[in-house]
Recover the amino acids of this structure.
């Protein structure tokens, strides 16, 4: 066994990492960190997101609607044409709408949230796994939410989708080890465009008072996108080589078991 190098927390320089949702707040912060450490990055996102927040010129940009099976297949076919394998894959896809009790929620809105937050993670994971397996030591990270374990009223449909993402991660971790590790990051409320619906999507509700929310966080502030970068890099890199099927909560201590 080689000695552990504490400087190698994320993927090594030259690694190939694809990021779904790389145009969003968390995505942009993560993509920049990967580029700055010499990692090759592919950004897959909605056409509207790619247009509104173009990824850095150093990346490969591919349009993708994660909830549409054909769109996902086309995007990953294009990715595979350039890269024979993936060392890492991160899925940040997700959005929210329909703040109301589940008993009053229209079925089509429930279906839309499940498609955008759970179906998308299934379709993208299924498409990414062959490329990850070819690396021999791939890492897949799905971004869920603390709502997966601590559901707030009015967000039940969203919480159910995120709980599904966590279950998906656990199953994929057992099915694909040792060639691919699969883990999840569960952010708490984070200061991104998600608070108004999501990057590339219409505004759903007015912004949340971050200062007021921050007072109930043990760390005394709302999370910023950069707060999620380190945990994701850790789960992508060799420092977490024996971490598999886990959900890492990153919310400043709001949710504790």
């Amino acid at each position: 066994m080689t000695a552990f190098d504490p400087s190698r927390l994320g993927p090594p320089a030259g690694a190939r990492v694809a990021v779904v949702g790389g145009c969003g707040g968390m995505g942009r912060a993560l993509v920049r960190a990967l580029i700055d450490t010499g990692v090759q990055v592919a950004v897959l996102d909605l056409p509207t997101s790619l247009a509104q927040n173009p990824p850095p010129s150093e990346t490969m940009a591919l349009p993708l609607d994660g909830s549409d099976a054909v769109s996902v297949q086309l995007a990953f076919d294009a990715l595979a044409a350039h890269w024979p394998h993936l060392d890492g894959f991160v899925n940040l896809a997700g959005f929210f709408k329909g703040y109301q009790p589940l008993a009053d929620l229209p079925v089509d809105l429930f279906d839309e949230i499940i498609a955008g937050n759970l179906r998308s993670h299934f379709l993208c994971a299924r498409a990414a796994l062959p490329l990850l397996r070819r690396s021999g030591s791939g890492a897949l990270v799905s971004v869920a939410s603390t709502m997966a374990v601590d559901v707030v009223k009015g967000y039940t449909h969203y919480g159910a989708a995120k709980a599904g993402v966590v279950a998906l991660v656990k199953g994929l971790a057992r099915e694909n080890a040792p060639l691919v590790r699969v883990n999840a990051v569960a952010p708490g409320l984070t200061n991104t465009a998600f608070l108004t619906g999501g990057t590339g999507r219409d505004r759903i509700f007015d912004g949340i008072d971050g200062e007021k929310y921050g007072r109930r966080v043990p760390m005394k502030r709302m999370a910023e996108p950069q707060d999620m970068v380190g945990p994701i890099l850790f789960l992508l890199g060799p420092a977490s080589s024996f971490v598999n099927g886990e959900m890492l909560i990153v919310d400043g201590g709001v949710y504790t078991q």
